[in-house]
Design goal:
single chain, about 110 residues, mainly alpha, two-stranded antiparallel sheet, about 50% helix, globular
């Protein structure tokens, strides 16, 4: 998985690294768990913006009882029925199905 630093994400988004760190704190963006917010998956940024439905999906996962590690694993786990990963489905604008599955997976 390709990852980016907050500074690299800021350059892609046309904002400051401090704003990226705020997005991480506000759970609008997620870093690799255990990386100290230093590694943000490149897949979370597309065409100069954060994936459109990622912030809402992160909220659904958190509200559903997922820890950061569980949410991250869920987002990048291959699912033959999608097909691909939930992140890839978001990138392909199939957010409705991904959100429905996240809600169904809630604890």
């Amino acid at each position: 998985m390709d990852t980016l630093t907050p500074t690299e994400v800021a350059q892609l988004l046309g904002t400051s690294p401090n704003r990226v760190r705020q997005l991480l704190r506000d759970r609008k963006l997620m870093a690799v768990p255990g990386s100290g917010n230093g590694k943000i998956p490149a897949a979370f940024v597309q065409d100069g913006v954060i994936l459109k439905h990622l912030p809402g999906l992160l909220t659904v996962l958190k509200d559903g009882g997922f820890t950061d590690e569980e949410a991250f694993d869920w987002l990048f786990r291959e699912d033959d029925t999608l097909p691909g990963t939930p992140v890839q489905a978001l990138r392909d604008d199939r957010h409705t199905e991904v959100t429905r599955r996240a809600q169904a997976s809630a604890f």
